[in-house]
Amino acid sequence: MARKHRDVVRVLVAEIVSGGREAGEMLPREVDLAEQFGVSRGVVRETIRALEERGLISVLHGRGATVTESTHWDVFDPDVLAATLETAAGGKVLSEYLECRRILEVEAAGIAAERAADTDLQRLQEAFARMEESATRPASAAAESLFHEADVAFHQALIGATGNRALGGLVERIHSALLLARFPLARPQYREERALPEHRRILDAVAGRDSAEARAAMSDHLDTIAGYLAELELTSR
Fold it and tell me: What CATH number does the domain located at 89-235 have?
């Protein structure tokens, strides 16, 4: 995506998600948007297409583009998610993500314990080792990114260990979104006492072929995240 195109998309996404452009409102004509942003009509057409693909607008030939209700938005899209996290609806979206993870990953942990091959266990161990290593680094934005990338890699390896490709496809977008949504729920101060022991417990249960313990360990880990989300919602009121 060209830079000008991406810039216009992000601005319009933010305006729609924030309520600056309400559902049912018509977007300006292509020529007017081109003048407003100082871009070509070709860039505007690409932008309109991008907004439509994200479910933010509905385009009818001869009538133009209309902002849609939020129920149609693709909340997994990075631009939509980033804009949503800046609004009061951010907490609700994170809660929906967590609910999705609870539905999918608790059972996945149990299945992984039953099916994981040696290569799957190696990937889990490597991801956990990266989490441990990055958690000991001096606090910085780079260290935070390393930790969260390793965290997501751990959960991706767990899903991979189920051997269920359809499940992997379902969860992939959630995990990609987590890298973007990580900062509101990040608690670096609790990594040694919570995040690392919780992931170690999941790893040990999968390696020990204990499906019941793997499910319980994942459920307890997600309970911890739910607690962080509750704290976030309290502070944002």
Answer: 1.20.120.530
